[in-house]
């Protein structure tokens, strides 16, 4: 008995039958095994999202820039098992919207993150922090940022800035600390054929600013101490300021935003200190 011949004939019959059969559409969302003929088969995986009318599950990370946007997205997509993490070092708040439920694991692939951006005003003052500048440059900086000043008033500081601008050619000779903490600088302006014109300029010990560290945050009281360097050999005066503990101001602003989120999410969802696993 020729088994080999019989097998060949049987396979030929199968191939003819398969060739004659009408094609059948494969159902998305499943794994199929398709016969190719001559005893060959192929596995076809149609479980991917590209084969579905809608995704099987929500995924991806949405980035927002303020608390209102965070709460709006969270309210739309969260459930009772969603989790929220606040990372004070990274200054981000991350929600895992499909976090593990108490009795069932979930993917944790759908996330929302608040990424804070510093305001232009904050960046301007921090960028000039602890830097001594020539009189003219310092005056220009003050004029450009008058809106942030609380004490002394903007008008007072504008007058001071103008005083520095008109004395750029003067020779500064001495400085004196006053009882108020302010400092008085004495100068002489050289005039051709005449005795030099003498004068003085008094600057306050500190500046009080109102700055919003992050976009969408409230303004905070910021104290900046005046700094100076008097080069008596050249009669040159350099001016600047040092902001007191700027890191603490950023932390306070972040914590206030975290509190707003904690208040805005459902009571049963706590805002945890830290960051979720990747």
Secondary-structure content class: alpha+beta
Residues in helices, as a percent range: 25-40%
Major β-sheet strand ordering = 3-6-5-4-15
The coarse overall form would be: elongated
The helix tally amounts to 6
Low-confidence stretches: 191-196
Number of domains: 3
Q: How does the major sheet shape up?
A: 5 strands, mixed
Give the total of beta strands: 15
Instruction: Round the Cα radius of gyration to an integer and report it.
Output: 36 Å
Q: Write down the overall mean pLDDT.
A: 82
Distance between the termini: 65 Å
Q: What share of residues are in beta strands?
A: 25-35%
* Helix and strand pattern: HEEEHEEEHEHEHEEEEEEHE
What do these coordinates show?
It contains six helices and 15 strands. Helix 4 (135-144) packs antiparallel against helix 5 (154-166). 19% of the residues are buried. It is elongated. A hairpin with a 2-residue loop joins strand 10 and strand 11. With 278 residues, the protein is α+β, with helices and mostly antiparallel strands. The chain folds into three domains: 3-50, no CATH class; 59-118 and 253-273; 120-246, no CATH class.
């Amino acid at each position: 008995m020729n088994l080999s011949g019989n097998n060949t004939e049987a396979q030929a019959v199968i191939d003819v039958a398969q060739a004659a059969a009408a094609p059948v559409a494969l159902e998305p969302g499943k794994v199929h095994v398709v016969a190719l003929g001559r005893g060959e088969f192929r596995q076809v995986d149609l479980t991917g999202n590209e084969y579905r009318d809608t995704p099987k599950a929500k995924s991806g990370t949405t980035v927002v820039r303020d608390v209102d946007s965070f709460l709006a997205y969270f309210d739309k997509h969260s459930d009772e098992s969603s989790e929220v993490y606040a990372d004070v070092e990274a200054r981000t708040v991350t929600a895992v919207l499909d976090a593990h439920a108490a009795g069932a694991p979930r993917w944790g692939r759908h996330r929302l993150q608040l990424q804070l951006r510093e305001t232009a005003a904050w960046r301007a003052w921090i960028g000039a922090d602890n830097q001594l500048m020539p009189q003219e440059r310092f005056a220009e900086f003050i004029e450009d940022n008058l809106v942030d000043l609380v004490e002394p008033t903007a008008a007072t500081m504008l007058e001071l800035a103008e005083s520095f601008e008109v004395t750029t050619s003067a020779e500064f000779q001495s400085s004196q600390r006053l009882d108020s903490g302010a400092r008085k600088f004495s100068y002489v302006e050289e005039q051709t054929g005449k005795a030099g014109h003498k004068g003085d300029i008094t600057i306050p010990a500190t500046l009080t600013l109102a700055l919003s560290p992050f976009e969408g945050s409230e303004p905070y009281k910021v104290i900046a101490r005046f700094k100076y360097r008097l080069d008596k050999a050249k009669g040159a005066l350099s001016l600047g300021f040092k902001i007191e503990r700027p890191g603490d101001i950023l932390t306070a602003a972040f914590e206030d935003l975290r509190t707003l989120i904690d208040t805005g999410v459902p009571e049963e969802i706590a805002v945890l200190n830290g960051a979720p696993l990747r």
